[in-house]
Amino acid sequence: MAAYYPQIKDVHVGAVTASGVLFLARGIGVQAGARWAMLKPVRITSYVIDTILLIAAGLLTAILQQYPFVDGWLTAKVLWLLVYIGLGTFALKRGRTPRTRRTCFVAALAVYAFIVSIAIAHDPRGVLSWWGA
């Protein structure tokens, strides 16, 4: 399986990008009151992308033999992922007011960017590690 590492990583990075772009588009759609953002085919597309992302992530952890709750940067990614998911649900559907949805949407985008920075840095401090924090 290690021979497929570059391809699996490309699938993972592609799925991360697709997931983020779709979340951004849906969030903007929800903020604008567009019905398409919550239509079943759009939601299913999101689930499919996220499933591919998680399967690729699992394969990468097995290949690299780096695991959440063992390796700090992966632990940070998993914990921040839970925060991102929570914020995302309030941004897209559970937020009761437009202000709540908007605030959670912006916060979710910031957390998404931070998770990406953790992945790039392989450091739980993510982008903060680039400035010696």
Our Rg estimate from Cα atoms comes to 16 Å
How many structural domains are formed by the residues?
2
Helix-strand category: mainly alpha
Please bin the fraction of helical residues.
over 70%
**Poorly predicted sequence stretches spanning 5 or more consecutive residues:** none
What's the mean pLDDT score? 95
Sketch the topology as an H/E string, one letter per element: HHHH
Strand content: under 5%
Q: How many extended strands? A: 0
Q: Which descriptor suits the 3D outline?
A: globular
**For the terminal residues, how far apart are their CA atoms?**
36 Å
* SS field, number of helical segments: 4
Profile the largest sheet.
Answer: none
Your description of this structure?
- The chain is mainly alpha-helical and about 130 residues long.
- The chain folds into 2 domains: about 1-65; about 70-133.
- Helices cover about 75% and strands about 0% of the residues.
- The chain has 4 helices and no strands.
- Helix 1 (about 5-30) runs parallel beside helix 3 (about 70-95).
- The protein starts with a helix and ends in a 12-residue tail after the last helix.
Helix-strand layout with pairing:
Elements: H1 5-32, H2 40-64, H3 72-94, H4 98-121
Helix pairs in contact: 1-2, 1-3, 1-4, 3-4
Please give a handful of descriptors for the protein shown.
133 residues, mainly alpha, 2 domains
